[in-house]
Q: What sequence folds into this?
């Protein structure tokens, strides 16, 4: 077998590699920012050629590959699938749709990042890059690498702009009461839902999935075990449909404290709905309320009546801010909100803990002086009689 050598060629500020396939066809791969990266890829190709494991990438455009990839995903939530389709349609296909998948290089992905950095939020940009990486080289699903469409990861080494999260500014107490009062003028359903969420902070799709059996009237808690999620429709007419499924994450399954006034309101609402009603917030006895319908015909008129431009999710932020203002522990707040980790709680609401360091220092100072006044101060500092010595220390006595 003829020895394969290959070559590295510099083109402007980037590097390319060329080599010949087992059939003698010359191949080029470009877009490497450094010579070392180009050399690493060339070594990988030559190793595959030398061992007989080289497989020439399939010729397919990104647009056709993306359509097949979406169609093959069966293990993800409908709402996630809808988000994937939106990203592919709005950003990835316009950038790579006509390109052969195997020809997409690091420079192409970096160019996409630069183009989108001024058009979309940092979060959306990161979601675009993450999805592209999952599609091409992901471990789950029929990725491009697994199916032989591409042999390298063109997203590796891409530099994202600094991500500056816009701090959440929660609604004020006055604004929330204005929203509740406006809801009361629009009907019992909207009023009950807005009132409850201001005191529990449930996600919209969690509160719409609640049944009366989820209320623990004795313990004054609400059990969150399900949520409404979007899934592909099976009726041959609609593209999407809503169904009851699992919450956002395993940590979202939780028990949330139910204030007495909320319990009283729900008890009255239950009586008004009748004994056969299943879902708490619905216009029918057996079916839940469509989230899109709720947004358009229930909550939007309430916000207009209140003169506020807010989302239903802003009530969740308000609930979190009130827990923080009341001095609740971050762990309790994390559990009540159903966050996947306490780090998520700090990432979203950390700026609302302005006094945490000051209070911690004050508590330390108070403990120190209280201990001294009570006669236990010697336990807080080193005993000078044991630490001061005229004799030099031996090597065996060095600090450990």
A:
């Amino acid at each position: 077998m003829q020895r394969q050598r290959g070559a590295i060629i510099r083109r402007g500020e980037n590097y390319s590699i060329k080599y010949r396939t087992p059939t003698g066809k010359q191949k080029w791969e470009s877009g490497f920012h450094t010579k070392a990266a180009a050399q690493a890829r060339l070594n990988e190709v030559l190793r595959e050629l030398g061992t007989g494991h080289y497989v020439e990438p399939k010729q397919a455009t990104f647009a056709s590959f993306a359509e097949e990839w979406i169609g093959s995903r069966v293990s993800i939530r409908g709402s996630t699938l809808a988000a994937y389709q939106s990203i592919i349609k709005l950003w990835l296909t316009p950038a790579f749709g006509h390109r052969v998948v195997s020809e997409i290089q690091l420079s192409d992905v970096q160019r996409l990042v630069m183009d989108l950095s001024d058009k979309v939020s940092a979060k959306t940009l990161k979601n675009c890059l993450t999805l592209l990486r999952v599609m091409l080289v992901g471990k789950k699903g029929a990725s491009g690498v697994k199916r032989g469409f591409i042999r390298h990861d063109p997203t590796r080494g891409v530099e994202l702009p600094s991500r500056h999260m816009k701090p959440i500014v929660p609604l004020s107490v006055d604004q929330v009461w204005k929203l509740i009062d406006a809801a009361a003028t629009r009907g019992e359903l909207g009023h009950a839902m807005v009132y409850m969420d201001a005191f529990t902070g449930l996600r919209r799709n969690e509160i719409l999935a609640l049944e009366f059996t989820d209320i623990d009237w004795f313990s004054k808690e609400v059990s969150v075990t399900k949520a409404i999620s979007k899934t592909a429709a099976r009726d041959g007419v609609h593209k999407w449909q809503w169904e009851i499924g699992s919450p956002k994450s395993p940590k979202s399954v939780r028990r949330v404290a139910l204030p007495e006034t909320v319990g009283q309101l729900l008890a009255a609402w239950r009586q008004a709905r009748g004994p056969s009603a299943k879902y708490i917030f619905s216009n029918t006895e057996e079916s839940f309320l469509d989230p899109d319908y709720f947004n358009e015909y229930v909550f939007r008129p309430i916000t207009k009546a209140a003169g506020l431009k807010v989302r239903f999710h802003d009530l969740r932020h308000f609930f979190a801010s009130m827990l923080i203002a009341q001095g609740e522990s971050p762990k309790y707040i994390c559990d009540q909100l159903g966050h996947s980790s306490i780090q998520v709680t700090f990432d979203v609401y950390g700026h609302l803990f302005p006094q945490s360091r000051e209070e911690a220092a004050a508590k330390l100072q108070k403990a120190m002086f209280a201990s001294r006044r009570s006669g236990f101060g010697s336990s807080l500092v080193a005993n000078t009689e044991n630490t001061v010595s005229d004799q030099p220390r031996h090597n065996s006595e060095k600090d450990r």
Summary: The longest helix spans residues 78-96. The beta strands are 7-11, 14-20, 26-32, 215-216, 221-224, 227-232, 240-245, 254-257. Residues 377-400 have pLDDT under 50 and may be disordered.
